[in-house]
Amino acid sequence: MTSRLTRRQRRRVSQGIQYAVFVAAVAAVVAVADWERLRNQFAQRGLAGELFPQIITTALRNTVVYTASGFVFGLVLGLVIALMRLSSVAPYRWVAGVYIEFFRGLPALLIFIFVGVAVPLAFPGAEIPGGTYGKVALGLGLVAAAYMAETIRAGIQAVPRGQMEAARSLGFSHARAMASVVVPQAFRIVIPPLTNELVLLFKDSSLVLFLGVTLEERELTKFGRDLASQTANSTPILVAGLCYLLVTVPLGFVVRRLEARTGKAG
């Protein structure tokens, strides 16, 4: 007569089966994949070496600049939209709500096409300051602001109401109390999600290729695609992907640390 397994034993058996399935799946992929063809197409060491230092000094640098400019523009606009969303003036709330729903609902690609095509048509002769860099900052910022606005709004609402009341009792106006007391505390709360938004913007900067850029304005994805087309090999795309990871992996680690620290503080 077999004895019934305890709950702990059943859990161990279940975990053992899952590990076995995982190992079997990995072994099957390793055994079936044609690693020689993959190496020839994606890992040509000599070709990868020829990408340096330009992939760092031009492509990665431009990607970082595009991301930083879009993040700063989006953060400033997002703060304005968040305050409008919390305003006691109804038209401000309506405008902020429409903006958030509109730009969160559209793919970022369409925003870039709008910035690159529709804006010049709507305002003939007018130019966005900064050229391509200004267009990228505007495109990324418009998208990021919609998400940042909701994040900042949630952070402001998470600040205890007593903070505002205490500031008002000290003679602060509502605007000064918001700027000096509430908003700084809100930003400490929302730093992790804002850092995560920075990671997303870094990847979305690849959409700059739809604006039409010069050789010196190329970011990582455009740089990798151009070199892959010239060499008929995908090694430049793989190297560009590794450059993305060079930035996004440390940023992801920072996000997790900030989230853990915020969780402990809470």
UniProtKB/TrEMBL annotation:
List where the protein spans the membrane. 16-33, 64-84, 105-126, 235-255
Query: Which residues belong to any copy of the ABC transmembrane type-1 domain?
Result: 60-255
Q: Membrane topology per the record?
A: Multi-pass membrane protein
UniProt KW DNA repair keyword: no
InterPro entries, per database record:
AA_ABC_transptr_permease_3TM (IPR010065), ArtM/GltK/GlnP/TcyL/YhdX-like (IPR043429), MetI-like (IPR000515), MetI-like_sf (IPR035906)
Q: Kindly name one Pfam family recorded for this protein.
A: BPD_transp_1
Q: Give the UniProt keywords, A-Z.
A: Amino-acid transport, Cell membrane, Membrane, Transmembrane, Transmembrane helix, Transport
Q: Determine if Transport is one of this entry's keywords.
A: yes
- Localization (cell): Cell membrane
Similarity field:
Belongs to the binding-protein-dependent transport system permease family. HisMQ subfamily.
Q: Which NCBIfam families match?
A: HEQRo_perm_3TM
Q: What is this protein called?
A: Amino acid ABC transporter permease
